[in-house]
Amino acid sequence: MNAIRSTLFMAYAILWSVLSAPLVVIAGPLLPGNWAYRFGKLWRLGTQFGVENILGIRPKVIGRENMPKEACVILSKHQSAWETMTLQDCVPDGAYCVFVLKKELLKVPFIGWGLAAMKMISIDRAAGKDALDQVVSQGRERLKQGFYVILFPEGTRVAPGQTKRYKPGGAYLATHVGCKVVPIAHDAGELWPRQAFLKKPGTVTISIGPAFDATGMSEIEVNKKAEEWIETEMRRLSPHRYPDAVSST
């Protein structure tokens, strides 16, 4: 059954992208205001419809009251493609999100073109310190415009139960701009594994942690605070993935 669901969803997602992505790529930039983001939201919601009604994967959000009303930096666990869609529903109604991503993604047909039209924060990872400055210069502008900036501090999708080094990009942006930071944990990888064709139906829990102000903090302090909350919460959400969490109960 999972194979049938996954095959049907893949066909649906491709067809929906072919029909809706051109609205983002072509019409969005030609119209005033945030039409690229509006069409992008239409594209995303259509895809999520397939996720929920074909794959049977639905979200459960806890801690929604922790999300600030003003634009901020969101640091989230990254396990699959699922959260790149659904995390955007965690910000206040009417607000939009942008992601920090590598420039190579902008070349991917349809998806990459749409991301470019929505002016995501794109960086050259090989640029070293200059890449951090790119995050700050673009991120500052997006925050001023009211966009919530989402980053995955581990830099790549990580399998459930694993942790990679938290990179400084998000913390660097927050400390240089002086804004709030929101940590987020979730267990999407349990149902939508990294680079896996087969997905399983069920409920993904998104846990939004308490926001904290990065003003006056160092990047190391911001990353440490975010990592401590996220990784502790991951052990609560998926204790079976962490032997130390199971043994301590």
UniProtKB/TrEMBL annotation:
Cite the GO molecular-function annotations of the record.
acyltransferase activity
UniProt key word Acyltransferase: yes
Q: Which UniProt keywords apply?
A: Acyltransferase, Transferase
Q: Which Pfam families match?
A: Acyltransferase
- Functional pathway: Lipid metabolism
Q: Which CDD domains match?
A: LPLAT_AGPAT-like
Name the domain of life.
Answer: Bacteria
Q: Where is the Phospholipid/glycerol acyltransferase domain?
A: 72-189
* Record protein name field: 1-acyl-sn-glycerol-3-phosphate acyltransferase
